[in-house]
């Protein structure tokens, strides 16, 4: 494992640089949503109205561009988990957060694989955000377990495996991209505890 810090793209302060950064990021988000994570960087640069060299100056790697495109969504997941922590119904809080996580993980084709790798690879630009998101979700899981609402033997890593599976189903759906709520509901039903038979 390298000690080098992953490159995180930041919006430039100069007006011309900021305009180019925003144009590239906007074009990338649109391209990723329609073509997936492997969208052509040359086409993204063209749609942004900049040369490919300008794109690479702002985003030296595809991973740095994907990180910038998904940064806000990951931040929202972390923020939402913090807002839900300590609510009266920890199972409802976990349920809501899981559904939001699946929607974000499947924003575009290929993202779930990128986020899964980033969770465990410190050399990726998205690692810090993915790690923070994992921790925030794990806290919601622990709260539901401590309340006796979710089976005690479920680990945070297993929860994220389930969420990744649901996101994969959603991102690969041929017709109804919102067909995953039923899948998530079945996952939730599989992890909740049941009252003992009297």
Automatic annotation (TrEMBL):
Listed SUPFAM superfamilies: Homeodomain-like, Tetracyclin repressor-like, C-terminal domain
Positions of the HTH tetR-type domain: 18-77
Keywords tagged on the record: DNA-binding, Transcription, Transcription regulation
Alphabetized Gene3D superfamilies for the sequence: Tetracycline Repressor, domain 2
Signal peptide feature range: none
PROSITE patterns: HTH_TETR_2
Residue range(s) of DNA binding per entry: 40-59
InterPro entries assigned to the protein according to its UniProt record, in alphabetical order: Homeodomain-like_sf, HTH-type_TetR-like_transc_reg, HTH_TetR, Tet_transcr_reg_TetR-rel_C_sf, TetR_SbtR-like_C
Domain of life, source organism: Bacteria
Protein name listed in UniProt: TetR/AcrR family transcriptional regulator
Source organism: Streptomyces flavovirens
């Amino acid at each position: 494992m390298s000690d080098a810090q992953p490159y995180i793209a930041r919006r430039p302060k100069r007006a011309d640089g900021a305009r180019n950064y925003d144009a590239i990021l906007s074009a990338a988000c649109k391209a990723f949503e329609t073509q997936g994570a492997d969208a052509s960087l040359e086409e993204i640069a063209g749609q942004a109205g900049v040369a490919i060299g300008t794109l690479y100056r702002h985003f030296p790697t595809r991973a740095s561009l994907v990180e910038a495109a998904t940064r806000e969504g990951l931040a929202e997941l972390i923020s939402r988990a913090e807002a839900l922590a300590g609510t009266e119904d920890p199972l409802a809080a976990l349920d809501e957060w899981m559904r939001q996580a699946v929607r974000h993980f499947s924003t575009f084709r290929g993202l779930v694989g990128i986020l899964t790798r980033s969770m465990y690879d410190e050399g990726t630009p998205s690692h810090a955000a993915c790690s923070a998101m994992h921790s925030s979700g794990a806290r919601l899981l622990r709260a539901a377990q401590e309340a006796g609402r979710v089976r005690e033997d479920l680990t945070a890593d297993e929860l994220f495996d389930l969420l990744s599976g649901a996101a994969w189903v959603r991102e690969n759906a041929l017709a109804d991209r919102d067909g995953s709520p039923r899948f998530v509901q079945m996952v939730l039903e599989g992890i909740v505890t049941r009252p003992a038979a009297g």
